[in-house]
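Deliverable D2.4 — example input (structure tokens):
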């Protein structure tokens, strides 16, 4: 099998698995259905991933990464750090309507991970990478005077991830107030800032006015 063909087969398998995760959840997936949707033979799953569980884990990682990349781009822009935070929250807010199936698929995978070691490993890596990233970002904002030094970066990063997991879980059976949750997170982070060194950015003032608090 040539390298290009192998890459194409692997990509088709991941794309087919992501589609099935969105529509059927983890429990509804079968190797035969995935292979058929990807238009490859059944043995391709074992050849490229070793098992269906490993394929599902790889697909989940790509699904989550695809949703996180635009948020990271917003966080790594050239604006004021607080403005970047609001840009990132705005990105999450605008993407939520189209990302709802992905949130439900993620929540389903979290539930299934208790009995699926491959999913548990994949989710653990996703959480650890995101925790390290957010912790570094919080530390940077502390250095710039945007968040006070009493905030423990790793603990706050873990809290933010836990909130995200909670919203994803609620989307599986209810209709979470995403705007409200994001607003509160923004105010929580900016409320723990060095008020003596910087003024609130325009985005924060606009948010407070919209919430009727300023």
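Example output (designed residues):
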């Amino acid at each position: 099998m040539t390298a290009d063909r192998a890459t194409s087969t692997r990509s088709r398998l991941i794309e087919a698995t992501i589609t099935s995760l969105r529509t059927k959840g983890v429990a509804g997936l079968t190797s035969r259905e995935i292979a058929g949707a990807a238009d490859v033979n059944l043995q391709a799953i074992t050849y490229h991933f070793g098992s269906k569980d490993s394929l599902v884990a790889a697909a989940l990682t790509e699904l989550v990464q695809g949703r996180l990349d635009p948020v990271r781009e917003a966080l790594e822009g050239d604006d004021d750090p607080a403005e970047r935070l609001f840009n990132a929250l705005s990105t999450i807010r605008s993407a939520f309507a189209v990302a709802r199936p992905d949130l439900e698929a993620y929540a389903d995978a979290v539930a299934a991970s208790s009995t699926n070691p491959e999913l548990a490993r994949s989710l653990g890596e996703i959480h650890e990478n995101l925790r390290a990233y957010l912790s570094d970002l919080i530390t940077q904002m502390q250095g710039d005077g945007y968040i006070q030094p009493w905030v423990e970066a790793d603990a706050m990063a873990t809290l933010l991830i836990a909130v995200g997991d909670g919203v994803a879980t609620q989307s599986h059976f209810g209709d979470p107030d995403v705007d409200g949750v994001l607003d509160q997170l923004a105010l929580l982070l900016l409320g723990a800032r060095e008020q003596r060194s910087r003024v609130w950015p325009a985005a924060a003032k606009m948010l407070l006015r919209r919430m009727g608090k300023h």
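Residues 57-210 form a domain with the Tetracycline Repressor; domain 2 fold (CATH 1.10.357.10).
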